[in-house]
């Protein structure tokens, strides 16, 4: 991307595209019911960020309780949700930044800083949830933190990596804008 510059049509939208994928992963984590699941048959427990569901036997009815009754449940949901909202704001700002013909590199660095703040909030929510869930909720059988929880961590890791990229991109401003003369290593005799 640096070799051809951000004006190169196919490379210009890679960063907003990656942020969009992060937003999709965040939506899956927020809406998914697979934060914690039973690992073996009979499946007796399934939890999301918002509720914990159990069933006493294989053919029984699921009974769900809201995790918003607990302070740690509200804290985990609020911190992860704040991180997700900051990610959505960064996505919108990235689309605006890359749609403008002349890039504002300080604006891009600000998006990177905001992504780091979003990552801090997301990681806080992702750490609060398993620590407090496993210590305060009654868990039966063998349970595992599952696919939706994994999507949450993927979103947090993408926020961190893209934050580094957004912050480091302005260091290559001259190369991106084509203001550097090429260096030739071949010299004639």
UniProtKB/TrEMBL annotation:
Belongs to the TMEM47 family. It is found in: Cell junction, Desmosome; Cell membrane; Cytoplasm. GO terms for biological process: apoptotic process; cell-cell adhesion. It is a multi-pass membrane protein. The chain crosses the membrane at residues 12-32, 77-100, 107-131, 151-172. The gene is Perp_1. This is p53 apoptosis effector related to PMP-22. It comes from the Eukaryota. One of its GO terms (cellular component) is plasma membrane. Keywords: Apoptosis, Cell adhesion, Cell junction, Cell membrane, Cytoplasm, Membrane, Transmembrane, Transmembrane helix.
């Amino acid at each position: 991307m640096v070799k051809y510059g951000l004006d190169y049509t196919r490379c210009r939208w890679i960063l907003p595209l990656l942020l969009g994928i992060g937003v999709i992963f965040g939506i899956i984590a927020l809406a998914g019911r697979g934060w914690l699941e039973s690992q073996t048959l009979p499946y007796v427990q399934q939890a999301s960020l918002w509720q914990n569901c159990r069933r006493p036997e294989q053919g029984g009815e699921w009974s769900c309780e809201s995790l918003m009754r607990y302070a740690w449940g509200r804290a985990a949901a609020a911190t992860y949700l704040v991180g997700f909202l900051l990610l959505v704001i960064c996505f919108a700002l990235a689309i605006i930044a890359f749609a403008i013909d002349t890039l504002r590199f300080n604006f891009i660095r600000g998006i990177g800083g905001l992504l780091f703040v979003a990552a801090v909030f997301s990681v806080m929510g992702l750490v609060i949830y398993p620590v407090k869930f496993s210590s305060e909720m009654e868990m039966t059988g063998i349970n595992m933190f599952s696919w939706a929880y994994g999507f949450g961590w993927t979103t947090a890791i993408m926020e961190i990596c893209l934050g580094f990229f957004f912050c480091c991109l302005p260091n290559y401003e001259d190369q991106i804008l084509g203001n550097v003369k090429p260096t030739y290593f071949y010299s004639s005799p």
